[in-house]
C-alpha cells in the first residue's frame, strides 16, 4: 500500500482542513493550512462537513456527503475518505485490511497520529445515529476531478522562517558581540586547564616541586575567577537582551492581533490566543539561549577534538562513534516528540479557556448549581494533559536509557584504553587525567546540540502556530489606498446585502437587504430576536464584510474608507459593550491621555449617571470593572452611553442601549439624547416602543429580510408585523 502522508492539526478547529491536506498530498498535491483556510468558512467550532466539501470542491475534488453503514464503508466508498468522528472531530480512513475474519481500519487522526482500529473501536467512535434500524456514520467521500489535476502544486514551506524573528536580534549587535567575546574568552581559558592538569601531575607531583604545584594551583584559581566573572557579565547582558526581545516579540504580536478583522476573533478561543502568546517565549529561548550557546559549544568541541587527537587518535574515534550513536538515538524520537507537543498545545488551550470561563462566569455557575459539572469538565482536560505528560515522561525515559547506555559504554571503553596506555608506558598519569577533563569538555557540546535540536523543534512548531496570525491579511495592509475623508453628504446606503457569519453563501442572517439611512435623521430597526438587527448594526460599523452587496457612505463603499477614520467618526453602544478595569473617567474617555472635564460632565449628564458618580467617595476616579467596584447592568449601560456621547461622533449606533434601564431613567436619557441627536446620523436597535416611537423612520426586520418600513404612525395603521410587536406595550388590542 502507498504510504499515507500525515499532518498534525495546529488547533482543534483545524482537524477537517488537516484531513483534506493529507488527502490532497496523497494525490500528490501540496496545500498549506493557510491556503485551505482562505477557502474555508470557519466558525468557532471549526469547519462543518458542508464547509469541508466546499473547500474540497474549490481545489478540484468531487465530493459526496453520506450517511452509511459499516458494510457500505468497507465495500462502496473510495479511500481515502473523511469520517465524522465522535460527533466533534474529523479523521481520514485511508485503508481497510481483513485479518482473521475481522476488518481493521487504518485511521489518520490529525490530533494524534496514524492509528489502527478494530471494527468495535471504529463503531464506538464513528457510528453515531440510526437509520431504518441500522447504525450509520457520516462520511465525506472524495475523488480528484479534472480541475484537481490542473491545479498548481503549492510549496508547503510558506510563512515566516526563523529569519523573521532573527531581525529582533539586530538592535543588540553590541551586546551580542560582547557575549561572543566572553564565550570565546571562556573557551580559551578552558583550553589551558587540561595542560595545567597534566603538568601538575607529570612535573609538580612527580618531581615533588611544591612551589611549582602552588604556581599551577594559583593559575587554576585565577582562571576559575576569570571564568566566573565572564559568566556573571554574560548573565546580566542576557537578562537585558532577553527582556527587551521578549517585550518586542509579544508587543509586535499584539500589534498584529489588533490589526486583524473582527471575523478572526469569532473563530478563535481565548485560550488558543493565550497559548500562542506563550509560544513567543520558546522562540526567544531558542534565539538567545540555545543558538548562541550551541555555536560556542561547537567551537569548544573542535578545539578540544584537536587536543584529544594530539593525545590519542583512537580515543577520539571511539568518542565520536559513541556520541554519534547517542545523537541518532535522540533524533529518532523527534517526530513523536512533535506530536506530543501539538497535542499538549491543544489541550492546554482548552484548559486555559475552561479556566477563564469558570472564573468569569462564577455567578452563573453558582446560580445554576453546576459547580461540580464545570469542575469535572476542567478535571477531564487535566486528565488528558496528565496522559500526555505520562507519554512525554515515557519518551524521555526511553531516550535517557539509550543516552546512558551509549555514554557509559563509550566512557568505559575510553577509560580502559587510557588505563592500558598508562600501564604500557604510552601515556603519563597526567595525560590520562587531562584526557578525562577533555572528554568532559567534549561531552558538553554534544548535550548542547541535543538541547539545541529540541529547542529548534519547539521554536519551529511555535512558528507554525504564530504564522497563522502573522500571515493573515490585516485591516491596514492596503490602508494607504483608502479614503481619509468621508463623503460630504454622508447618507448610509445598503444595497442587496447578504451575510452569514461563517462566510458561506447559504444560511444567511441577512438576505438581500436594501435600505437608505438619511443623514442627520434617526432611523430605528426593530424585529423579533434573531431577525438580524445586531448583525446589521455590526455591518454598518464595519465589523464584517458582506458576502454579497455593499454598505456605502453616500456612493463610497465602506470597505474603501480608512477604518480608523470611520471608527473615529462613529459612536456605538453594543449589547456586549465592555467595561475596562479602570476608573469611571477612563472608561468614559477611552483612549484619551488628557480628559476634557467639561465634555466628561456633559456626557454623564446626558447619560443620567452624574448623581451616582457624585455619590461615590472617589467620584470619577472610582475604579470599576473586573478588578474594581461592581456596577449594575443599568449603570453599565449608562456608562457606555456616556462613552458614546463623550466621543461626540457624527454617526451613532445604539443596540438595545436602554433595555436594562427603568422607565424613569430611560425617559430622562431619551429626552437628553434627542437633543444630542441634532446634526447626527443615528441608528437605534430596540424592542421598546418608547425608544423608537419618535424615530424619523422605522425598519422592521423579519428572518433577515425587511418586512416593513415607515414612521410609527404609518406602521401602526397598517396593523402588520410592527403592530404585532408593539401592541402589548400600547394596548392597541383594546
Automatic annotation (TrEMBL):
Its main location: membrane. GO terms for molecular function: ABC-type oligopeptide transporter activity; ATP binding; ATP hydrolysis activity; peptidase activity. One of its GO terms (biological process) is proteolysis. It comes from the Bacteria. Gene3D superfamilies: ABC transporter type 1, transmembrane domain, Cysteine proteinases, P-loop containing nucleotide triphosphate hydrolases. PROSITE patterns: ABC_TM1F (PS50929), ABC_TRANSPORTER_1 (PS00211), ABC_TRANSPORTER_2 (PS50893), PEPTIDASE_C39 (PS50990). The chain crosses the membrane at residues 176-196, 208-230, 285-309, 315-334. Residues 9-133 form the Peptidase C39 domain. It holds the Pfam family ABC_membrane. SUPFAM superfamilies: ABC transporter transmembrane region, P-loop containing nucleoside triphosphate hydrolases. Residues 179-458 form the ABC transmembrane type-1 domain. SMART domains: AAA. One of its GO terms (cellular component) is plasma membrane. The keyword rRNA-binding does not apply. Residues 492-728 form the ABC transporter domain. CDD domains: ABC_6TM_peptidase_like, Peptidase_C39B. The keyword Cell inner membrane does not apply. Keywords: ATP-binding, Cell membrane, Hydrolase, Membrane, Nucleotide-binding, Transmembrane, Transmembrane helix, Transport. PANTHER family: ATP-BINDING CASSETTE SUB-FAMILY B MEMBER 10, MITOCHONDRIAL (PTHR43394:SF1), ATP-DEPENDENT PERMEASE MDL1, MITOCHONDRIAL (PTHR43394). This is Peptidase domain-containing ABC transporter. It comes from Bacteroides stercorirosoris. The lineage of its organism: Bacteria, Pseudomonadati, Bacteroidota, Bacteroidia, Bacteroidales.
Amino acid at each position: 500500500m502507498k504510504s499515507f502522508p500525515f499532518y498534525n492539526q495546529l488547533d482543534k478547529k483545524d482537524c477537517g482542513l488537516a484531513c483534506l491536506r493529507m488527502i490532497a498530498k496523497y494525490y500528490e498535491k501540496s496545500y498549506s493550512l493557510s491556503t485551505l483556510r482562505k477557502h474555508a468558512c470557519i466558525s468557532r467550532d471549526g469547519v462543518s462537513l458542508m464547509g469541508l466539501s466546499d473547500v474540497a470542491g474549490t481545489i478540484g475534488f468531487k465530493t459526496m456527503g453520506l450517511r452509511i453503514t459499516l458494510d457500505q464503508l468497507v465495500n462502496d466508498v473510495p479511500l481515502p475518505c473523511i469520517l465524522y468522528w465522535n460527533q466533534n472531530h474529523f479523521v481520514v480512513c485511508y485503508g481497510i485490511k481483513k485479518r482473521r475474519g475481522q476488518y481493521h481500519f487504518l485511521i489518520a487522526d490529525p490530533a494524534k497520529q496514524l492509528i489502527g482500529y478494530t471494527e468495535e473501536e471504529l463503531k464506538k467512535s464513528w457510528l453515531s445515529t440510526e437509520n431504518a434500524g441500522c447504525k450509520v456514520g457520516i462520511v465525506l467521500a472524495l475523488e480528484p476531478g479534472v480541475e484537481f489535476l490542473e491545479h498548481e502544486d503549492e510549496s508547503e514551506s510558506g510563512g515566516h522562517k526563523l529569519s523573521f524573528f532573527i531581525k529582533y536580534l539586530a538592535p543588540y549587535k553590541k551586546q551580542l558581540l560582547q557575549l561572543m567575546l566572553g564565550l570565546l574568552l571562556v573557551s580559551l581559558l578552558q583550553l589551558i586547564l587540561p595542560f595545567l592538569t597534566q603538568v601538575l601531575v607529570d612535573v609538580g607531583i612527580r618531581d615533588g616541586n611544591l612551589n611549582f604545584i602552588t604556581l599551577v594551583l594559583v593559575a587554576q584559581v585565577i582562571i576559575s575567577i576569570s571564568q566566573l566573572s565572564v559568566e556573571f557579565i554574560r548573565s546580566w547582558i542576557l537578562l537585558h537582551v532577553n527582556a527587551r526581545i521578549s517585550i518586542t516579540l509579544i508587543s509586535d504580536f499584539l500589534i498584529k492581533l489588533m490589526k486583524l478583522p473582527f471575523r478572526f476573533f469569532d473563530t478563535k478561543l481565548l485560550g488558543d490566543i493565550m497559548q500562542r502568546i506563550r509560544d513567543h517565549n520558546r522562540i526567544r529561548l531558542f534565539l538567545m539561549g540555545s543558538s548562541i550557546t550551541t555555536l560556542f559549544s561547537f567551537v569548544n568541541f573542535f578545539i578540544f577534538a584537536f587536543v584529544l587527537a594530539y593525545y590519542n587518535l583512537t580515543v577520539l574515534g571511539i568518542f565520536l562513534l559513541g556520541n554519534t550513536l547517542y545523537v541518532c538515538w535522540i533524533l529518532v524520537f523527534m517526530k513523536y516528540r512533535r506530536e506530543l507537543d501539538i497535542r499538549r498545545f491543544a489541550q492546554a488551550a482548552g484548559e486555559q479557556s475552561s479556566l477563564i470561563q469558570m472564573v468569569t462566569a462564577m455567578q452563573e455557575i453558582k446560580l445554576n448549581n453546576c459547580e461540580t459539572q464545570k469542575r469535572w469538565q476542567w478535571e477531564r482536560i487535566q486528565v488528558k494533559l496528565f496522559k500526555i505528560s505520562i507519554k512525554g515522561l515515557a519518551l524521555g525515559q526511553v531516550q535517557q536509557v539509550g543516552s546512558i547506555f551509549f555514554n557509559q559504554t563509550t566512557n568505559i571503553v575510553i577509560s580502559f584504553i587510557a588505563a592500558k596506555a598508562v600501564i604500557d608506558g604510552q601515556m603519563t598519569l597526567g595525560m590520562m587525567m587531562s584526557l578525562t577533563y577533555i572528554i568532559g569538555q567534549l561531552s558538553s557540546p554534544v548535550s548542547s546540540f541535543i538541547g539545541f535540536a529540541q529547542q529548534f523543534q519547539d521554536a519551529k512548531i511555535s512558528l507554525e502556530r504564530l504564522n497563522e496570525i502573522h500571515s493573515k491579511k490585516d485591516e491596514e495592509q492596503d490602508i494607504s489606498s483608502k479614503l481619509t475623508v468621508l463623503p460630504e453628504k454622508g447618507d448610509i446606503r445598503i444595497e442587496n446585502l447578504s451575510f452569514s457569519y461563517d462566510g458561506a453563501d447559504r444560511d444567511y442572517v441577512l438576505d438581500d437587504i436594501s435600505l437608505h439611512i438619511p443623514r442627520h435623521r434617526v432611523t430605528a430597526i426593530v424585529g423579533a430576536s434573531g431577525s438580524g438587527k445586531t448583525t446589521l448594526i455590526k455591518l454598518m460599523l464595519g465589523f464584517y464584510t458582506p458576502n454579497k452587496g455593499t454598505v456605502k457612505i453616500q456612493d463610497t463603499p465602506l470597505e474603501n474608507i480608512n477604518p480608523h477614520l470611520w471608527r473615529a467618526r462613529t459612536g456605538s453602544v453594543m449589547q456586549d459593550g465592555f467595561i475596562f478595569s479602570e476608573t469611571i473617567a477612563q472608561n468614559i474617555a477611552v483612549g484619551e491621555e488628557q480628559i476634557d472635564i467639561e465634555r466628561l460632565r456633559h456626557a454623564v449628564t446626558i447619560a443620567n449617571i452624574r448623581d451616582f458618580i457624585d455619590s461615590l467617595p472617589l467620584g470619577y476616579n472610582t475604579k470599576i470593572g473586573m478588578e474594581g467596584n461592581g456596577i449594575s447592568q443599568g449603570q453599565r449601560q449608562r456608562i457606555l452611553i456616556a462613552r458614546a456621547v463623550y466621543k461626540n461622533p457624527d454617526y451613532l449606533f445604539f443596540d438595545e442601549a436602554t433595555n436594562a434601564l427603568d422607565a424613569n431613567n430611560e425617559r430622562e436619557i431619551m429626552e437628553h439624547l434627542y437633543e444630542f441627536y441634532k446634526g447626527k446620523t443615528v441608528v437605534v436597535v430596540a424592542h421598546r416602543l418608547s425608544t423608537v416611537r419618535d424615530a424619523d423612520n422605522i425598519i422592521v426586520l423579519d428572518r433577515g429580510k425587511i418586512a416593513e418600513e415607515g414612521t410609527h404612525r404609518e406602521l401602526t395603521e397598517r396593523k402588520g408585523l410592527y403592530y404585532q410587536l408593539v401592541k402589548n406595550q400600547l394596548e392597541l388590542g383594546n
